[in-house]
Design a protein that fits this description.
single chain, 527 residues, alpha+beta, 7-stranded antiparallel beta sheet, 23 helices, 7 strands, 9% strand
């Protein structure tokens, strides 16, 4: 590729902001267009970011391919062109990179007091998290004795886990489900503690809106939104639930929904402001009280844990004032809507063709099927929504997770330490400790394995398996009491006769049907 071709691709993309449209206009393949834009810093994806991270640490394309279980060619497609591959190295465009990124991603930088050398787009290698079930303070002394005697609780119902920094909040959800014994049967959300939420937003609706699509998801929770929130709920009984769940919390991690992207939050905010123009001048408390059906303090689940956790704290003044209003590049919304319609039509075609696969292959029309798949792939890639998402840096060391709004389970997630440095054996890997109670020791080989292979490991646990549909923490205590002590521990012998069969075996049968494990697995098999 010569420098003129290189410039032509970049200039085309800056006008239409679409991979597929750029490929069509310039006559180059989508793959070549994507690689030029990666080289120029105008486009990225989770795959390209991971390839770039490993490549910067000195790994070759072949080594990266082996780590990520990909072909060498697939990895090279996400690596920037070398200067030698372009006649003048694209020097003129490199000088304009910062200006282009600022225009495409109008998001204020954060000057937060970080514990690590953190910049937007950079992350540590791995984080150690302490996951602790809330609500024990609601129990009386007798209930706590039941938890200790029959629930295996020493101090708290908790898990300590080492996770790759690239793990998304969505993947962390499945990890939490597995660790605590739930079955992904109910709604959930991640959110910030009130003090952090107030500091970030200043308690202002206007400032909250500026952070939507960066940290928060703002949408109206109707049925269509729920389908997008739970875009990956695709379990069927052709594989075991445990295997399906493990595929969710192990990498490579991706986000294939829409509502977490910056541009869709811009659209939601704009529509909300048109409908409720006075809301912008309200405090968050006022707005949340008046428009409580909307999602407010709801963290984006596409965010990697390493981009959110790992800060000793922020102040409202850490966020630069005068953040520009959220505006999409000229024509971007129109192009995006056009391509979404195109993708939806192609999706319908694919579903139709899936039903006709046998007849299509028998009639020798395999090229038709392959061609359609290729066009579909280009259209999806062409959306390039990732390229409009701003990079963020850690703003907290603690987030909260709610599961099953009826049973009211809550887990506090605290980053106790993080690991930075090279993943190469023999090179420096350092830890940053946040909790005074955290063990200062660690195994560098385990940290590197977790980060490289994107597979979390459980380091410790306190308390036995929980379960769905038991009535929350109080109901779980009642269950243990009826199972092991006939409800006599706290005088509950007749309290649940309409709910539970009075025989322990019947209770066990029911509990196992909702995923309960009476015996805890070994630490190695927790995940």
């Amino acid at each position: 590729m010569n420098s003129d071709e290189y410039r032509r691709i970049v200039e085309s993309y800056r006008v239409n902001h679409s991979l597929s449209a750029t490929a069509a206009e310039t006559g180059f393949s989508t793959g070549k267009v994507m690689r030029v834009l990666i080289t120029e810093g105008l486009w990225e994806s989770p795959m390209s970011r991971e390839v770039a991270r490993l490549h910067s640490e000195g790994y070759s394309a072949a080594e990266i391919a082996e780590m990520m279980d990909r072909t060498v060619g697939n990895v090279q497609a996400y690596m920037p062109y070398s200067k030698e591959a372009i006649e003048d190295g694209g020097g003129r465009e490199a000088g304009q990179r910062a200006e282009a990124n600022e225009r495409i991603i109008p998001f204020a930088a954060v000057r937060g007091r970080q514990a690590a050398d953190t910049a937007p787009g950079s992350m540590p290698a791995a984080l150690q998290l302490h996951l602790e079930l809330g609500g024990l303070d609601r129990l009386d002394a007798q209930d706590k004795k039941i938890l200790t005697r029959y629930g295996g609780v020493k101090q708290s119902v908790s898990r300590d886990v080492l996770v790759p920094a690239t793990m998304t909040l969505r993947a962390l959800h499945y990890c939490i489900q597995r660790l605590f014994g739930w079955q992904n049967s109910h709604l959930h959300r991640f959110y910030l503690p009130d003090r952090v939420y107030e500091e970030m937003t200043g308690g202002s609706v206007a400032e909250f809106f500026e952070l939507c699509g960066a940290y928060f998801r703002f949408s109206y929770p109707d049925d269509s939104d729920m389908e997008d929130v739970y875009w990956d709920n695709d379990y069927d009984d052709r594989k075991s639930f445990a295997r399906w769940e493990k595929e969710k919390y192990c990498g490579p991690y991706e986000y294939a929904g829409q509502g977490d992207h910056r541009i869709f939050n811009e659209i939601e905010v704009e529509q909300f402001q048109k409908t409720y123009p006075d809301a912008k001048n309200m405090t968050l408390r006022e707005a949340q009280k008046r428009y409580g059906e909307w999602d407010w303090n709801w963290l984006l689940e596409r965010l990697p844990v390493g981009s959110l956790l790992g800060s000793r704290g922020i102040r409202h003044s850490d966020f630069q004032p005068g953040v520009p209003e959220m505006k999409c590049p000229d024509g971007c919304a129109r192009l995006l809507n056009d391509e979404i319609s195109h993708v939806k039509q192609l999706t319908d075609d694919l579903h139709r063709m899936k039903k006709e696969t046998v007849s299509i292959l028998q009639s020798g029309k395999i090229d038709t099927c392959l061609s359609l798949l290729d066009v579909y792939g280009q259209a999806v890639t062409g959306l390039a929504m990732d390229s409009l998402d701003p990079d963020v840096i850690p703003v907290t060391n603690e987030i909260l997770y709610d599961y099953d709004y009826g049973d009211r389970w809550q887990v506090k997630i605290t980053c106790t330490k993080l690991f930075q440095g090279s993943l190469k054996k023999g090179e420096e890997l350092k830890q940053v400790i946040f909790s005074k109670d955290a063990d200062v020791g660690y195994d560098p080989a385990v940290v590197r394995k977790v980060a490289k292979h994107e597979k979390p490991v459980c380091l410790a646990f306190d308390g036995h398996s929980l379960m769905d549909d038991v009535g929350g923490l109080e109901g779980y205590v009642n269950f243990l009491d009826h199972l092991y002590a006939d409800g006599k521990s706290a005088g509950r012998a007749d309290e649940f006769t309409d709910v539970y069969d009075d025989t322990p075996e019947a209770l066990r049968t029911w509990a196992r049907s909702v995923g309960w494990q009476e015996k805890m697995p070994s630490l190695k098999n927790m995940l």
